[in-house]
Structures are given as structure tokens and as C-alpha cells.
Amino acid sequence: MLQQRQQVLLNTTRKLLRKNAHIRLQHIVEHVHPADVAALMMFLSEDQQDIVFGLLGENARKAEVLSYLEDAITERLLDDFSVNDIAVILQEMDDDDAADLLANVDEEKAKQILRLMGREEREEIEDLLSYEDDTAGGIMTTDYIELKPEMTASEALVAVQREGEEPEMVFYLYVVDDDERLIGVVSLREVVQAPGETLIESLMTRDIKKVRTDTDQEEVASIIARYDLLAVPVVDAENVLSGIITVDDVIDVIRAEATEDILKQAGVSEELLDDYSVRRNVLSRLPWLLATWVGGIIVVSLIGQYEEALKKVLPLAAFIPIVLGMAGNLGSQSATIIVRGIALGKVDVNHLFATVAKEGMTGLVLGCFYGVLLGAVAFAQYSDIPRLGLVVGLALSSGMFIAALVGTLVPMLLHRIKVDPAIATGPFVTTFVDITGVVVYFHISMMLL
Amino acid sequence: MLQQRQQVLLNTTRKLLRKNAHIRLQHIVEHVHPADVAALMMFLSEDQQDIVFGLLGENARKAEVLSYLEDAITERLLDDFSVNDIAVILQEMDDDDAADLLANVDEEKAKQILRLMGREEREEIEDLLSYEDDTAGGIMTTDYIELKPEMTASEALVAVQREGEEPEMVFYLYVVDDDERLIGVVSLREVVQAPGETLIESLMTRDIKKVRTDTDQEEVASIIARYDLLAVPVVDAENVLSGIITVDDVIDVIRAEATEDILKQAGVSEELLDDYSVRRNVLSRLPWLLATWVGGIIVVSLIGQYEEALKKVLPLAAFIPIVLGMAGNLGSQSATIIVRGIALGKVDVNHLFATVAKEGMTGLVLGCFYGVLLGAVAFAQYSDIPRLGLVVGLALSSGMFIAALVGTLVPMLLHRIKVDPAIATGPFVTTFVDITGVVVYFHISMMLL
């Protein structure tokens, strides 16, 4: 439904752009949701993007679309804009979106833009810009409502009424003491439902799920997801309330992290999806393929060393790909299960032995099953070399067993030394499995043939 | 932080269980968040799970923990419970969680439990149970607040006050006409901020993002994520408001779908992470490995047919793994990029040719690069067979080019015929690439050597 609507919008836009029917196009882009305009932009050429963005009219509308737009497109669009134009648009944005946008503008220009803004707004944005991108500080907003514990419920409602439309999220109201330290949280619902004279102090929850400004964004996402929160407050080292992170920003984090893990599995970097040029594509994939290539070259020279064995029993060559392929596949499966399990907190990382034993057992069972199967095929096909079946069967079983162990151990050890285990699902495990697989294969064949 | 706390909780629990220190353990499980208890349960043995669950005390607490628990564990725990016990716990739950729980109880027992409940609650739950699991109806809740357009803001506030604590989400209030058809939505903030006599009709937004009861849950997640919503209303075919879906339920959907895609990439089924026994593990992975095995057998017999060529130039055998490995890797990369791109709406699925051309170009560039590199290595290593370098280089380049085309085309065509493109990242593309790779390799070698 969403995709169909998106496709209709895209086709209509392209048609109107071809006909130069800009007034009709303006009517459309002014009436669809800014998130839809932003999604549309991804499929347009640069010239078309400029036209559509120009048709958006009011700065408030431009600000909304920009807050949904991919960074790469934002960066390019704003390149043509003057410092003044950008400052005017920024004033229409929430401060977290404004900070994100400024992070995409070149530094000199960003400084000039900040100088054009009001003092309070400038300080807030500068503050937000000082945090690392992928921390709680980097994704939080400073638009929230603060209450004092000694306020009554009616006074709190007046405070909400005074705030106007600005805060993104007024479902939770945060209670701070005189030093701005976070001491409680109360929901707007609780305030509305309480008798007017009730003290906020007696309404608020003191047991607050909160994060620090330097908490990693993945951790923030896990906390919001686990405790089903709509927003989480962000405090500094002194427990002073610095901002809040709302669940919609966390959804983007969860999606981005999932995408990163998925692409890492194939050795592709994440930005690829946003800026999909052949050049970027090639450069992003070249280094990862190198791991496979280097592994492959080692395998070539290993097989070269067993040339004598091959010369004696040529059919050995035919079985190399299936032995390496099956082992590599099983190793990737193990690595994938462990990596995803760690990410979701479903693998007990402190019990290395139990997990490795389970995966190893699985590898052994699957290895024996397919080993017997392959042995039978080899025996039937090459009945003149009766022991060939034994060799390929044994090689497949041991290759798959080793692959399961390696695929489990590598991500668990990486996690333990605090390296992202997801790289284990890339070409490294399969390459390692290929090399050990060839050695095992020829050793078994030399012993038995 | 979350993981460390989790680990401390797990270690303490295990220690207290070993010492049979149940009173101290009870003190702990009564005071941590129910989501933490649910996460803890995953790492305990069945006997330990029974003990911890028994220590939870009040039914309200049990209900909370159950609403966070994995289905497999819930199912097992409730097996030992009487119909009455379950009915009592169910009364403490939100109706969507209650319906989910009943779906995990065997049918006969579920019927008996429903008979024990009040009429209104029973009808609501029966209604929820009638929807497919993975549709909007299957994940929605019926706890929401309805307003009428002719109410004033103060009357609306009174309605909210009357509701008590039950509705999960009162940030959005839904406006329905006399036939219960959804005509608008207004936020609690807007109601609080408006003068008391304002009509809801004039406050509400009529342009509502909504979904149908039969909308796929992935679609619901995409809509909530794209438009940054905290909840989305669910209507039936007549636009009658049937329920709402809150963003926290959607986060679970997004995580589950990402996990599914990640595991599918390695040919592993999703339930594996929840019920991790060797038996399940083997059975889940066996069929997928079969695809690789069958492909491998085809490759074995293909190589067998080229035995004459191999006999003449034995070093050809040494280069088979690297040619197939590199092509397979590149093919998986292409498939992964396209599959994830389609899932995130970042690939223009209607422009097959443009996408295939881009990926094909990338495959060609990478293929030529690594082809030349491999050719050089082969030439250096086997200077007595001067044309070997040309053969392996050409084979690698064409293999990688074909892999990029196949890896792009297969998911796009699957998407077009409405089959989940994610299966393309499994063993099928690599197997196909292996087979074509061998044929191309030996054809080139027979032409040139």
C-alpha cells in the first residue's frame, strides 16, 4: 500500500517533470506528507531534486522535508543555498533536526549560520553538535517540558498550555530539582487524571529508566525497546537533565543497525544504500572481496602443493568445491545465529563453552549426515576408486564440524574483546574455513588413498 | 550497560537458585522490571523457570512478566496451570497481550478459559483472536479512548479522567461518528492546550494515517516509521475504528523482521533464536544446506565431465575454488543490497533495467580488477603454461559479472511476482553462480588451452 502509493507519486512526478508542468507538480508536493516528498527525492536525478525542492514554497515546508531527507541529498541541496537562506529554514526546525542538518553543512558555513541565530537557539544547537553522532547526546532533542516537584497538577497543566506547539513529545513530563537534576517523571495522562491540587511530587515516578549523554545509540534503542517506552530522558554525569530521545528516532536507529548488520554479512558498507553510484559501489565492495581473494590465493597454492596427490586420483579435484562450499555455508550459519543472538541478548555470552558445544554438536550431526550422503554419491560415481567415498565423506564431515566451531567461536571472542561481532559474518570466517578445509581434505586423502 | 546489568541479574539468580535461597530471590524478582525478569527466564533451565515464575507472587506481576515473555516459554509454563489460574492472570492483562497469550494455549483449554471471563472482555479477546497473527488486527489493542466530534475540550478531558489507568496509550484520542466510523484524531496535548469550550470537531485532524485490520504488520511498521507516529488507528472495511497499534509493538515487529531477513540470508529459520536445542538447530538448517549440497553435486559431475581437460592441465583444478568463491561472494553482495534496498524502499523496483545495469557495471569493474590480479598470479606461478593466466583471469571476470547480474535480477523478479525477495540471499544464488561458474571456466579453458 505504502509502496504502491509511493510508486504512483513517483510516476506522476516524473511525468509532470517531463512535461514541465510545474504548477500541477507544486500542487501535489504541497499536499502530500513531507516524509513522502523526502522518500520521492531519493529516486529523482539531481536536477529533478532541485526543481521539486524549489516548488515546496514556504520555509516551514522545506524544513519539514529536510528533516526527513537522507543526509547525502540534504548536503547536496544545501550546497547551493546562501547562509541566510539556510538560517531562515533552520529556525523552522526542531533543534535536534537543526543540529543534524548543520552537521551536513561545511564547517565554515555552519559557523556563519550559527552567528545569524538567536543566542538561546544557537547555544542549544552548539550543545547538541558537541556530542558524538551515535550517542544519546547525538540523537536527543532539547524540546521537552520540565516541572518542579512542588507544582500542583493544575499548575503543571498551565505549564503545558504555555509551551505551545513546540515540544515534539509531551506525553512524559520531567521533574527536576533546583539544580536541574532529574528526580522524577510523570505522564500527561496522570496529570490530567489527578485532582487539581495534587502535588507533582506525589504523582511522579522516581524509578526512572534514563540514559547518559554518552550512552551508545544502540544501547538507547535496546532500553526503549525492552521497557516499551515512548521516550527516555538523557542526563549528564551530574544527573542534570540534558534532553530526551523519542521512540521515533529510535526506530530509525534500529532500522539502521539492522541494515548495517545485514550488509556487513555480505561485506558491504551501509552508506551504499543512500548514495548508489557505480563508483561508490565498487570502492565499498573492493576491500571486502580482497579478503576472499587473498584466502582464495592461499587455497590455490595449497592445492598446488598437493598436485602429486591430485595427479594420482584426479576425481579428488571434482569434490573440492562441494566440501568447501558446504563447510563455508555452515560456518556462516553459525556465525549469523551467534551474531544476531548477541545483538538481541539471546546468547549467553558468558557461557562460551555451552554455546560452542551446542553449535559444534549441530555441525557434527549435519556434517555426518551430508558426509554419508556425499560418500555414497562418490562411491557410486567412482566405483573404481573404492576409498574415494570414504575420503570425501570424512573430509566433508570434519570440514563442517570445524566450520561450526569457528563460526561460533570467532563472534563470541570478538564480542568478548569488545569488537563488533558482526564482522565475523563477513568473508573472514568462510575464508578461514576454506583454508582449513583444503588442508584437512588432502591430509585425509593422503592417509587413505 | 543493559547487558552488564542483565548478566549481574543472571549470575545472582543462578547463585541463589543453587543455594535454594528462595526468599532472597523472591525479593529480587519482585523488584526488577518485569521485562528484565522475562529476559532472565530465557537463560534458565525449565526447572529454574518454574521456580522463578512461582516466586513472582501476585497475579498482576505474573501477568506483566508473561506479556514480555517469549512465546515458547509462555506455552511451556502455562501447560502446568489450571484453566482457573490462567483466567485469573488474564484478567490482569491488556487485551492484546491476553489474546497473544491465549494463542499459545491449546485450543480446548483456551475455550474453557474464555468461558470463565466476563462477556465484554471475552468478546473483545475473541475478536482479536480472529485476525491473522501478522496483520494489523493481530497486533492491535482495543484499549483506546474514543471521543465524539460534538464534545468540547473540557468534556474530552473528563472522558480521559474517567478512563482510569487502563488504556496503554492516551496520547492520541480518536474521534468517531455515531456509527463508530473514524473521522478524526486529536492529541491529548491539543485538548489540554485548547480553551475548555472548543469543540473537538474543530481541534481534530481529519487527514489521518490509518491502516486496515488486514494490513500486513510489516506495512504497519513502515507507516509508523515513515511518518514518525506514536500510534496508528486500525479500521475495518467500513472505516469503523477497531483498535490501535502503538509504536512499542511495532518496534518488536521491526526487530523480528530484521532478524528474519538476517537469518534467511544464512538459510536459518527465525524461531531458532527462541528455542535453541541441537535437534531444532539441525532440523532447521538441514533443508537449506540441501540446496548447497545439490548444487555441489551438480558441480562435481560437471567437473567430472571435464576430466580430460583437467588431466591435460592439472593446475586448472587449483583455481576452481577461488573463481567460484569470488563469484559467489559478489553475487551475495548484490542480492543483499537489492533485498535490503527493496525492504527499505530505496530500490526503484519498477526500473529493473537501470538497477541491473548499475549492479552489472559494478560486477564488471570488480571482475576485471580481480581477474587481472588473478591472471597475474597464475602467470607468475605457472609460467610453463603461459595461457593459464588468461584463462583464470577471464573466467573470474565473467563469473563475477554473471554473479552480479543474477544476484540483482533474482530478488527483483521475486519481488515482482510477490515472493519475498529475501530468499534470494540464501544459498540459491550462490549455488546457481557455482554451476554457471564451472561451465564458463571450463569452456574458456577448452577454447584457450
Beta-strand proportion of chain A: 5-15%
Q: What is the H/E order of chain A?
A: HHHHHHHHHHHEHEEHHEHEEHHHHHHH
Runs of chain A in which pLDDT lies below 50 for 5 or more consecutive residues are: none
- Level-1 CATH class name of the largest domain in chain A: Mainly Alpha
CATH architecture call of the largest domain in chain A: Orthogonal Bundle
The helix fraction of chain A, in percent, is 55-70%
Assembly state of the chains shown: homodimer
Strand-pairing-aware structural class of chain A: mainly alpha
Task: Choose one word for the global shape of chain A.
Answer: elongated
Question: Termini separation of chain A (Å)?
Answer: 62 Å
CATH topology of the largest domain in chain A: Tetracycline Repressor, domain 2
For the largest beta-sheet of chain A, the strand count, sense and barrel status come to: 3 strands, mixed
Task: Supply Rg of chain A.
Answer: 30 Å
For CATH, the homologous superfamily of the largest domain in chain A is named as: SLC41 divalent cation transporters, integral membrane domain
The strands making up the biggest β-sheet of chain A line up spatially as 1-2-3
